[in-house]
Amino acid sequence: MVKQLPRIPHLRSFLQYQSRRHASTKPTHLTILNQDYPTDHKTNITPTIISKLPIRLHTQRSHPLSTIRSLIESHYPTFSHLSSFSPLVTPYQNFDSLAFPVDHPGRSVTDSYYINEGLMLRTHTSAHEVEVFAKGEDRWLLTADVYRRDEIDASHYPVFHQMEGARIFEASPSGMKEVEDDNARLASHLAKSNIVIEDIPHLSPTNPVQPLHDPKHSEAVALNLKLSLNSLLLELFGGVAGVSKEDPLRVRWIEAYFPFTSPSYEVEVFFRGKWLEILGCGVVAQSTLDSAKIANKLGWAFGLGLERMAMILFQIPDIRLFWSTDPRFLSQFSHGKITTFQPYSIHPANWKDVSFWLPHSEKQKATMHDNDFCDLVRDVVGDLVEDVKLVDQFTHPKTNRQSLCYRINYRSMDKPLTNAEVNDHQSRVKAQLKEQFRVEIR
Ligand code: PHE
């Protein structure tokens, strides 16, 4: 079944509050996961997003995302497997506790969903690092739904799933012995396997050891991180990729930057002719462990995108499919098994353009962020939208008014759309645009 407009009470007034011009009609409270929250000037969470919060695909047995989660969890049998953390977090948890600068773009209302100034939807599973370390967990995996405002295409969806993994060791001779023993075990396993790793130095001037770390400890931990992830990737990709001596699995490590790890890396896997970015990771910033009141320890963390991994392993071509409740999708999968998805229909694309003038006043030049447009379209037509592109933009030289033209691709994954249906969706998008942003359709 195709997801249509979510059935949320007071949808109309809800949508109205988003109109900056109708600020007075903004509801004072929103009900989210059965609890009431006050709204304020930062509120930008949409009905579509609210409707996704209870779904938790990563916990639905035999769903591809849940299978990927289980496979990774069984690769780390001695780790705690966590998956019940609320998606509502404070900006402190999501950003400050991880040393994000105050002007980081991820904090803006155009990039993240806010319930109000003090509460947002987590944009990554790292938001829980401090609280999990603070519980005393020293090896854990945490799987969760994460939310980011983004463009619309076959590989972007405002909700996706991540798994965070972390392991910390005593910063002592016995702790380092534990790391070295584990490194020896992992290295001997990998040496016997059909995997080629393009490595980089653990530390470099552009990817430095943290000031409070002994470089020897940091290198041993970084090596443990690399060996541990290489062996995970070998297990996940080795089986399905037809990996052999002649055609080994290729993995490459790249320097990266995250405010909450140093050194930091990204990992890519060569799969079906392309290098694909799979995860980010690094040696945990000491400030994270300090906030968790963990002394004399150091360790690593990684964050891995489950959709990205599942799209590759199951050959799922469109990210919207993960949300499908069509039995032709769901019945293809059984728990714990990676199988190749058989597309049951590819229906024609339906492109429609909408051009409009943004409202204009002497004082203020109106603007609209692409993500505002995308959220509006999702609220009106749900998952029937496959792709949205800004195709034209200009400012009238005399009136100074701004004109935008967006091209929307309507395509159902389940059935062909009739012209009448597409036209109806397009008119509802136009009506909502007029109501919410006071635009003048051209
Ligand atoms: N949270 C990061 C992201 O979403 C990934 C990451 C996790 C990087 C843990 C380093 C350590 O991109």
UniProtKB/TrEMBL annotation:
<dbReference type="InterPro" id="IPR005121">
    <property type="entry name" value="Fdx_antiC-bd"/>
</dbReference>
<dbReference type="InterPro" id="IPR002319">
    <property type="entry name" value="Phenylalanyl-tRNA_Synthase"/>
</dbReference>
<keyword id="KW-0030">Aminoacyl-tRNA synthetase</keyword>
<keyword id="KW-0809">Transit peptide</keyword>
<feature type="domain" description="Aminoacyl-transfer RNA synthetases class-II family profile">
    <location>
        <begin position="69"/>
        <end position="327"/>
    </location>
</feature>
<comment type="similarity">
    <text>Belongs to the class-II aminoacyl-tRNA synthetase family.</text>
</comment>
<keyword id="KW-0496">Mitochondrion</keyword>
<keyword id="KW-0436">Ligase</keyword>
<keyword id="KW-0648">Protein biosynthesis</keyword>
<keyword id="KW-0547">Nucleotide-binding</keyword>
<dbReference type="Pfam" id="PF01409">
    <property type="entry name" value="tRNA-synt_2d"/>
</dbReference>
<protein>
    <recommendedName>
        <fullName>Phenylalanine--tRNA ligase, mitochondrial</fullName>
        <ecNumber>6.1.1.20</ecNumber>
    </recommendedName>
</protein>
<dbReference type="InterPro" id="IPR045864">
    <property type="entry name" value="aa-tRNA-synth_II/BPL/LPL"/>
</dbReference>
<dbReference type="InterPro" id="IPR006195">
    <property type="entry name" value="aa-tRNA-synth_II"/>
</dbReference>
<dbReference type="GO" id="GO:0005759">
    <property type="term" value="C:mitochondrial matrix"/>
</dbReference>
<dbReference type="InterPro" id="IPR004530">
    <property type="entry name" value="Phe-tRNA-synth_IIc_mito"/>
</dbReference>
<keyword id="KW-0067">ATP-binding</keyword>
<dbReference type="GO" id="GO:0004826">
    <property type="term" value="F:phenylalanine-tRNA ligase activity"/>
</dbReference>
<comment type="function">
    <text>Is responsible for the charging of tRNA(Phe) with phenylalanine in mitochondrial translation.</text>
</comment>
<feature type="domain" description="FDX-ACB">
    <location>
        <begin position="345"/>
        <end position="442"/>
    </location>
</feature>
<dbReference type="Pfam" id="PF03147">
    <property type="entry name" value="FDX-ACB"/>
</dbReference>
<dbReference type="GO" id="GO:0005524">
    <property type="term" value="F:ATP binding"/>
</dbReference>
<dbReference type="GO" id="GO:0006432">
    <property type="term" value="P:phenylalanyl-tRNA aminoacylation"/>
</dbReference>
<dbReference type="GO" id="GO:0000049">
    <property type="term" value="F:tRNA binding"/>
</dbReference>
<dbReference type="InterPro" id="IPR036690">
    <property type="entry name" value="Fdx_antiC-bd_sf"/>
</dbReference>
